[in-house]
Amino acid sequence: MIDIDDLIDEASDLPYGEARTLLLEQALRHAESGGDREQILAVRMELTEAYQFGSEPAKSFATFSRCVADFDADPELFDDWQTHTLLWQYKWIVDSMRDFPQVPLGRAHDALAEMERRYREAGAGLHAVHAQRCMVAGHVGDRAAAEEHFHHWTITPRDEMSDCEGCDPDGKIMHLAALGRDEEAVALAAPVVAGHLTCENQPQSILSCLLLPYVRTGRYAEAAQAHLKAYRLIQALPHYTSNLDLHLEFLARTGNENRGLEILQRELPRLEERASPHTLMSFLGAAGLLLRRLEELGHGDLAVAVGGAETSVAALRAEVTGRARELAAAFDTRNGTREQSARIEACLTAEPLVDHLPLVPHARRVTLSGTAPREGEGEAPAAETLPSIKVPGGDQAVAELTRLAQEHAEAGRRQEALDLLAGTRDGSLLFLRARLEEPVTAARTLRAARVALRAEGDLALLATAALTHGELLRHLATTPQDAELDTTPDELPEEPGSLEELLAAYGEAAAVSRDPEQRAVAHAVRGEVLVAVDRPEEAAEDLIEAVALFTALGGTANAALARVDLAAAYLSTDRVVEAAIAAEEALGLLEPGDYDNRVNAQWTRAHARRMLGEREAALADFTELAGLYAEPIRAARAWEAAGMLLGELDRDEESSGAFSQAVQNYVDAGAREEAGTAMRKQLSALYWADQAKAALEAVAPVRDFLRTLDGEQAAFELAALDYDEARMLLSLDRHAEAAIRAREAVAAFTALDLADLAEAAADLLEHLEQPDQD
Length: 774
Description:
The protein is mainly α. The chain contains 38 helices and two strands. Helix 6 packs antiparallel against helix 7, helix 25 (516-532) packs parallel to helix 27 (556-572) and helix 36 runs antiparallel to helix 37. It is flat, with a radius of gyration of 34 Å.
């Protein structure tokens, strides 16, 4: 027999969307066939919510109306919570009525009047009623009424029927922004933006509402962050169709038309399927603006793929513009005003607010004409004191020495060339000499050449010498010349150079070069070295410059490689959104066969996605990486990360399987300590998968393995295993044995000075020692 309550509980564990809705519809059919009025009511109220948050608000009208009829017929059927919920859902229904032109406006007004009457009868305040009246007045263009209701909305105290403190500012911000009161809008949103107030719709909704106010008030960094954060949150919610129009308009008016086109192509099919007419109209209007901007930039013939069909920017613009106007006309016919058409026309004809607002630091545009360095980069460093260069004839003598040395070198007489250049203090001749010397000696000569070239003011050759010096120092660090030079970059001896000298060489090349490609290379390599020596903040600055320069130069391949390192630097400095974007961009640009860089970028993206709460996407990355890695140790770490995510997603049996894979790969890699940790996690996952007996049977061999290991980590894992085993025994009603293990866990965690874990184990022990646990 079908248990209706079980179906409701099962549905509640699912995200809003088709699966949840179908399960509740099944529950309603069973409830109606059984005739239990209380169950029917419970399912209908759940369905109203599922329809609203699952992008099917039109279906909620019927379920809500039946619940209202049931309440009017028999209020005793409703408990206090259901009565509160019914009144709360009035807000959703009134709000949704505005979104469908086929719903007469009079019905919305009638529903508002009913909402107010019922709130008064229930003793509730009218805060939410004023909010809805403000939004209806704004929808039809009655600005005076909207302002009056906004005033009442603002001064009326919040009550139990008010939207949550995260959502309530949304409508206020849109009202203020429409009136050009952007500073007030930004100030009102501060608590939500700070992350103090979140819910199903926040912070993505309020961040979307703030996009244009941020730009208009010069808060460009905040605008970029708001777009990036909000859109990632929206992407992770398949049922969420609101606010996307705000993102398209923002991108179209800030010089980010290409990203706007990507989002348009990705989201239009979803909105066609799920969005209400008003949401779709707003999106189509913003799409028309975006496509107009692309046409004005000369991309009218660009191919565009939407929902499997290919068209052009110009053709798609004509289509979406026409449909937006048709929908606006339908709303205006319903409303008896021209408000919606006026809004669509204003959007379609809107002009850019800024020429270009970089969404991430590395997306900044650089100008290559003139090839002048950035501000502060053009001056050469102060020259070190050198004896005067005594070369008869000046530049002519230098040119002659250069010619003769090159002739010797080309004829295979390297020593004669070196002898000819011996004792020179001229920067160009020292540079030439370094090119003829053995690496260790050349490194010292290049140091002297750079000093001379600074003094001479020859910045072009100085840039080349500095870049050559950096490359040589790097070569010496990674390719041993003798036992003394078998080092990593951060262990370089003072002779021929240290890490700081290597970084300074690349830094000088980037600072003084007039050649943008040379600057790009210098920034890229310096950034790569800084990532390798765990100095990510400095690395990010260089790599941002490298990506911007390579992109401006059209160097797609080099820009992709720099993005791999930049993504890692971003992640290490908690710039998680930027890390995810840089990694995604790199993966889109790297060659399919570039194994090393592709897996590095995907690893960074996986961690960024996890930190952003995008668990399913992160899990997909880690699982794919586990299959891609050729090295067991890397595969093991990917499996372990997948196991952790599966546990967070309450997929505990799969989590146990992932940890099992991690164990095997750690063993294959000879990483016994990590294998022990993964073993213990595997047993914990089995326990949470309601397989306590199977987990308990495997405890002894895992404990034996952990006892073969030394160190604090092994001691911790043994303590954690004692605690886990105590819980397993408790679940099997073996309380006395569980108490023994809990006591051992308390002692072990205490010895490790892990007070919180010792307290948790002590709480478990106290529970086990209660008289009723015997």
